[in-house]
Design a protein that fits this description.
The chain is an alpha/beta fold and 270 residues long. The chain starts with a strand and ends with a helix. Helices cover 44% and strands 24% of the residues. The chain has a single domain, classed as 3-Layer(aba) Sandwich (Rossmann fold), CATH 3.40.50. The longest helix has 20 residues. The strands form two sheets. A six-stranded mixed beta sheet has the order 6-7-8-3-9-10, with helices on both faces. A hairpin with a 2-residue loop joins strand 1 and strand 2. The model has no long low-confidence stretch (mean pLDDT 90). The protein contains eleven helices and ten strands.
């Protein structure tokens, strides 16, 4: 089976500073992969490179094939066809990703309309609005009419993240890239968003690339993990094996830190 995302010898640099070095990994259709590491380990840079979203000041070499299309050096028109169709991204803080001056219903409607036109279907107002409501239901947003007519700052952080997920799903991508999607949320809302992502990925058959520094979060939603340290993959394997019996010192440090944090939370009753 041909990988949906095939990254080979990826190198990302900012001037003379290496950000990601000699990275190799694949994501198969329907597979769920975790990319983990501390802040600055190159996780988000890898996701941005995979979707052609890095700024011109960042240099990229190697090979990134997304749904059979070479991303490195691809023209904007090529990437515009791939984004949303081959892959869609849910970012860490949706308030910065959403248009603050546009009502939420209209923001969800835009990718719905593009997908209908892409598929050769008539994007009438009634059809678009029906699909917007279906997406709002799918991501379990309460009071749909209020959400549709609200601006991003008028809803909670968890609701904004659900809106961002709805927008990502609107184009029915083959790969969903979730870049630290729960970091800015409280623990209860984190759990709800993780449950939602798990459910949606299972229902749609999408592949998932889940990026996080939080090991327990990753363990809940992926099957395989890649551990990055300073832009270098130091360990890779099934999530149970890597977290249960880590081979690299860095991974052992991450696992131990997560264990101590969980113990501290338990001791305080949080």
């Amino acid at each position: 089976m041909k990988p949906l995302l095939d990254i080979r010898d990826l190198n990302i640099r900012a001037g003379d500073k290496p950000l990601v070095s000699n990275l190799f990994f694949t994501v198969q259709p329907g597979e769920r992969i975790g990319l983990i590491g501390e802040s600055g380990s190159g996780k988000s840079m890898t996701a941005m490179a995979a979707t052609g979203l890095l700024p011109p000041s960042i240099s990229v070499s190697g090979s990134i094939e997304l749904d059979g299309q070479q991303v490195v050096g691809a023209a904007d028109r090529v990437m515009n066809r791939l984004r949303g169709v081959a892959a869609a991204v849910v970012f860490q803080e949706p308030l910065t990703a959403l248009d603050p001056l546009m009502k939420i219903g209209r923001q969800i409607a835009e990718p719905v309309r593009r997908r209908l036109e892409r598929d050769g279907r008539r994007a009438s107002k009634d059809v678009v609005q029906r699909e917007v409501r279906d997406l709002i239901d799918k991501v379990a947003l309460p009071q749909p009419e209020r959400i549709i007519n609200s601006y991003p700052h008028e809803v909670s952080g968890g609701q904004r993240q659900r809106v961002a997920i709805a927008m990502a799903l609107a184009c029915r991508p083959k790969l969903l890239i979730a870049d630290e999607p729960t970091t800015a949320l409280d623990v209860t809302t984190q759990a709800e968003i993780l449950k939602l992502l798990d459910q949606l990925v299972r229902e749609t058959g999408m592949a998932l690339l889940f990026i996080s520094h939080d090991l327990p979060v990753v363990a809940d939603v992926v099957e395989r993990v890649i551990v990055l340290k300073n832009g270098i993959a130091v360990e890779e394997g099934p999530v149970g094996a890597v977290f249960g019996k880590p081979q690299h010192d860095y991974t052992r440090t991450l696992v131990e830190a997560a264990r101590l944090f969980d113990e501290a939370l338990g001791a305080t009753g949080s």
